[in-house]
Amino acid sequence: MTQLNTADATDAPAPKGLLSWLPPANERKKLLPLGMIFFCILFNYTILRDTKDVLMVTAKGSGAEVIPFLKTYVNLPAAIGFTVGYSKLCDKMSQKNVFNTITASFLTFFALFALVLYPASSVIHPHAFCDMLLTSLPAGFSAPIAILRNWSFALFYVMAEMWGSVVVSLLFWSFANQVTTVEEAK
């Protein structure tokens, strides 16, 4: 004789097979969009990380000696300034609006760079002025002058560096913590 199983459906073991690694359906509604957001952020980060160094090192009058100057004298003050601005934004806006505002600002800059600044770089970079500075200043000033000469590339470099530390590390995880409960995180 066969005995009928009257156990509740919630007592049934998790399904085994091809889809057993997926989280329950109620968690997928947040997990999949967060995963897609994270993928897009990291995809952009990879492209930016690879482009920023090449752009600066191969620019006219520039070289690898520019990178330490950019990281110390441009990127560090920009990061400190961003931290101050971020704390003020957090005081005035919700975490979702902070995420959207800062991410939109970064994406607007990168679109502006691709569509306006990079194509016009031969016109907007002060090559003649920097050549004059190189003749009148000591040779040790060549890296800072190269940063001035290629100011739009230096700005791109700083924004690309900030994308990695700000959007990937700070904004995404703050947003994920805001929309995910402790129970869902388990």
UniProtKB/TrEMBL annotation:
<keyword id="KW-0813">Transport</keyword>
<feature type="transmembrane region" description="Helical">
    <location>
        <begin position="98"/>
        <end position="118"/>
    </location>
</feature>
<keyword id="KW-1133">Transmembrane helix</keyword>
<protein>
    <recommendedName>
        <fullName>ADP,ATP carrier protein</fullName>
    </recommendedName>
</protein>
<feature type="transmembrane region" description="Helical">
    <location>
        <begin position="68"/>
        <end position="86"/>
    </location>
</feature>
<feature type="transmembrane region" description="Helical">
    <location>
        <begin position="154"/>
        <end position="176"/>
    </location>
</feature>
<dbReference type="InterPro" id="IPR004667">
    <property type="entry name" value="ADP_ATP_car_bac_type"/>
</dbReference>
<keyword id="KW-0547">Nucleotide-binding</keyword>
<keyword id="KW-0067">ATP-binding</keyword>
<keyword id="KW-0812">Transmembrane</keyword>
<keyword id="KW-0472">Membrane</keyword>
<feature type="transmembrane region" description="Helical">
    <location>
        <begin position="31"/>
        <end position="48"/>
    </location>
</feature>
<dbReference type="Pfam" id="PF03219">
    <property type="entry name" value="TLC"/>
</dbReference>
<comment type="similarity">
    <text>Belongs to the ADP/ATP translocase tlc family.</text>
</comment>
